[in-house]
Specification:
The protein is mainly α. Keywords: Cytoplasm, Nucleus.
Length: 169
């Protein structure tokens, strides 16, 4: 019974942390935590939203490379909403029939099949869990890198807008 109570309380604590991020409450996370980067991204996009009072003025900003400021503004807001509330359309990992396309390489697939033939029960599950854990860590590192870049983009766009409208930076 204690095990279920521990899981329930951990899930509730996680939900509360995410709610605090969404509400922009003061929370503290390790600077190495994905939640820290998520919080910074959400806060900066909220600041950008509060600063950019007339989004159409972004169309007057000079375009840097392929980055259209108005499109960037919209994309950052959409990503924040998707991060907090999900429900976005499936990404390109979905095939035309709605079936998930595997991201496992041919080598991974062969290794997985070979592990199942080892004759040692449970070995395949342990190897699969270890592989999944490493994939998760790799994806979290990539997500943190993306969130930091997106936060920097929101900061830059906010400053450019402030300069355009003559507001103090």
């Amino acid at each position: 019974m204690s095990f279920n109570t521990d899981i329930s309380s951990k899930l509730e604590n996680s939900r509360n942390s995410l709610r605090k991020i969404a509400r922009n409450d003061n929370t503290e996370f390790s600077k190495e935590s994905i939640l820290y980067d998520m919080e910074n991204f959400v806060k900066m996009v909220n600041t950008m939203d509060d600063t950019v009072l007339v989004p159409s003025r972004l169309m007057n900003l000079p375009q840097e490379g392929d980055d259209d400021p108005f499109s960037l503004f919209s994309m950052l807001n959409d990503l924040k909403t998707e991060l907090l509330w999900a429900g976005a359309e499936p990404c390109s990992e979905q095939s035309d029939r709605g079936r998930r396309v595997s991201d496992m390489s041919d080598t991974d697939s062969e290794t997985s099949s070979a592990a199942g033939d080892s004759g040692i029960e449970g070995e395949d599950e342990r190897e699969s869990a270890a592989r999944a854990a490493e994939d998760c860590r790799r994806h979290l590192r990539g997500l943190r890198r993306c969130l930091r870049q997106l936060t920097a983009s929101a900061t830059h766009l906010t400053r450019c807008y402030q300069e355009e409208v003559g507001a103090p930076v």
